[in-house]
Amino acid sequence: MSTAVPANSSPAAPTAISVRGARVHNLKNVDVEVPLGKLVTVAGVSGSGKSSLALGVLYAEGARRYLESLSTYTRRRLTQAARPDVDEVLHVPAALALHQRPPVPGVRSTFGTSTEVLSSLRLAYSRLGSHCCPNGHANAPSTDVALEIPTTCAACGVEFYGPGAEMMAFNSEGACPRCEGTGVVRTVDEATLVPDESLTIDEGAVAPWQNLMWSLMKDVAREMGVRTDVPFRELTEREREIVFHGPAEKRHILYVNEKTGVAGEMDFTYYSAVHTVENALSKVKDERGMKRVEKFLHEAVCPDCGGSRLSELVRSTKVRGIGLDEACRLPLSELVEWAAGIADTMPQELVAMARQIVDELIVTARRLLDLGLGYLSLDRASSTLSTGERQRVQLARAVRNRTTGVLYVLDEPSIGLHPANLAGLTGVLRDLLADGNSVLVVDHDVALLRQADWLLEIGPGSGHAGGEIVVNAPVAQAVADPASRIAPFITGAAEVICREPTEAEEVFAHGAVHLETAPIHTVHALDVAIPEQRLTAVTGVSGSGKTTLVLESLVPALRALADDAPLPAPATSIQTEQAQRVVVVDASPIGTNVRSTVATYSGVMDELRRVYARTPAAREAGLRAGDFSYNTGSLRCAHCDGTGQIVLDVQFLPDVDIVCPECGGSRYGEAARDIRRVLADGDRDAAGLSLPELLALTVDEAEQVCADLPRARRHLHLLSELGLGYLTLGETTTALSGGEAQRLKLSADLGRDQHGTVFVLDEPSIGLHPLDVRVLLGVLDRLVERGASVVVIEHDLDMIANADWVIDMGPGGGEAGGRVVAAGTPEQLAADPASITGRYLAEHLAQSSAH
């Protein structure tokens, strides 16, 4: 006899992810409960372990378990995540990560294709457009295309089929035949073919023959009547014409193999320098091959399609009087307004279909508008989007997919977002929650943290001083916890101003960089003054023209001025009293080489190698400084070749990186560990430290033991002042966060006089806790004190409030921006009603002063 199971006896659904014993990177055997179905924010200073928990544990384990549920056949074709160093993770759903730096899309990807707005727009043009017959006569919109029946031209009577949506795609039949749907044509730039005319052809004057594996061509050219033993500049016009454009004729040549010295003879077809490049371009199969060829190419907008990528037939179809190419050039905000009126222009029988198509387009576009991307046009190449823009495109696509039961892990989604765009971001995150997902956000934007459901703070410090759970509670409860280091910034209790402000009348006391530009993109002609030996912030909503002003106008103009070269467009004039050099510092990773470490990049490693080479044991062994290099020296570990790790191939499972069992990750062989240096501080072992042991110390620890080494100590002290004292000397630079990488790049410039130098930083506050922002402001202040002029593109209100001068672009993005709305001190900007940034800055300053 069966017994009915009571309805309420089923186990309750889990409400949190349980993590036990997490030890990824600097996490200290962490146990934590992370709520499900909530907007959870993870905060902490740089290097505290935020990303280690969010991405290294929760995302890695969620993604790994999902992949393990797939078949072996499928798993073999996917890149699999290795199991994180954690004892147990319970109740983790399938996970998706939206990284801080999404991969750069290919050449055929545009804002329209990556967001799928273009798919809806193509459908609108296919079903609702006025199509032209083969004789060029326009026909009124009809149901023929939707019914897949031929249209009879009202003017000439010819029957034709209107194009379907796929036939209007530039990745298929709708592509311009000239550029094959890329919008650009590549032609050989003859100026690059012979970069040094003082060389002879025998000496390698013709670069394509040298670089593209056609070294025998000089022998063929000799048979064609070209002198190859005189400087290229002395060749006659006929000889130069043969080199650049000579016919593909076969010649019998005698040659000597350059590697073996063996002579031979053969029949060989002549490839001119231009044809050599064109032939190589036609055979390019990957990015590496393209890089070899592109140096000889000039890229220009396709003259046939005007860069639209579309064929003439596709461009001939009109909706509301404009073609698909014209619609794709509209900023998204304008496109939505234009699309909303399509149904009103349609015949009655098409109105219902028009509304359905347009509604789909507007729903997709609305997410992007909410995320502050309304200034972008559909034809904008995806490769030109910023990392923040690409991440927001990913986020909009995730919401559109309407998945449920997924853990979304977002790394700094507020990157590049003006405070005015933040409400749209939180709205989209709430949409993900409404669909039954969980959202975990690693971010420092206090406005975003205020709107979260839950705050998980990791710290309290960085590196060894971090890796612990400081606070894990609902936001209202977390901000009342005295242990929280972010709470004073969320509540507004923390002091905003942390550097001595410059009085308005003193801002231009040291002169100015005066820049004038012509109109470009959506930016109008500008006339801007940037004070010298001051900290200037360039602000404005996304797409307002900040990047165009600073990175595309100011930086190239200053470089041209330094090189005494013509000013590049759009700059028309630049005047300066001091500026002689420009340095651009961004937060991009420092290379991809695991051999680069904090010690090598900062320059301290060279001094340490020299010091250890002078020890008695090293001299006795006949060792030089070069022997102490873990990259090429004789003391490097032979088992891992100085990388400190080895890769295990586990067939069906992902490759596993493990610490080298021979050197324990130190990168050095046994002999290096026997060469020790007696230390300055007497607290340590009297036997001293070996170089591998020294590289395992943090910067702060190494500064103490190198107190008797002035050069090394100076390097280490600079790193410590930059707030990087928690990093170990042997830490790879590829493992550093964006903020850490940026400060490490600045370290080389801190110790010298900087008069005449302009430092340009693009969003230096990316990835920085408010406390780290204060450290960065201290660094920038030191540069200014040493005579530098510092220009930052910023959205962070703390950075803006501490600037000497603010230039606010806008008022909106795209066509609605491109002007200097306001310029002045932070106080003047906060009082200017025309400035959107000023409005948020005033609120920020008022909230701080209220406490």
TrEMBL record:
Every ABC transporter domain range: 12-485, 502-836
InterPro entries documented for this protein: ABC_transporter-like_ATP-bd, ABC_transporter-like_CS, P-loop_NTPase, UvrA_DNA-bd
Predominant localisation class: cytoplasm
MF terms in GO: ATP binding; ATP hydrolysis activity; DNA binding; nuclease activity; zinc ion binding
SUPFAM superfamilies (UniProt xref): P-loop containing nucleoside triphosphate hydrolases
Record's subcellular location: Cytoplasm
Alphabetical keyword list: ATP-binding, Cytoplasm, DNA damage, DNA excision, DNA repair, DNA-binding, Excision nuclease, Metal-binding, Nucleotide-binding, Repeat, Zinc, Zinc-finger
GO BP terms: DNA repair
Statement: the UniProt record of this protein carries the keyword Nucleotidyltransferase: no
A Gene Ontology cellular-component term: cytoplasm
Pfam family, one: UvrA_DNA-bind
Protein family membership: Belongs to the ABC transporter superfamily. UvrA family.
PANTHER family the UniProt entry points to: UVRA PROTEIN (PTHR43152:SF1), UVRABC SYSTEM PROTEIN A (PTHR43152)
Listed name of the protein: UvrABC system protein A
Lineage: Bacteria, Bacillati, Actinomycetota, Actinomycetes, Actinomycetales
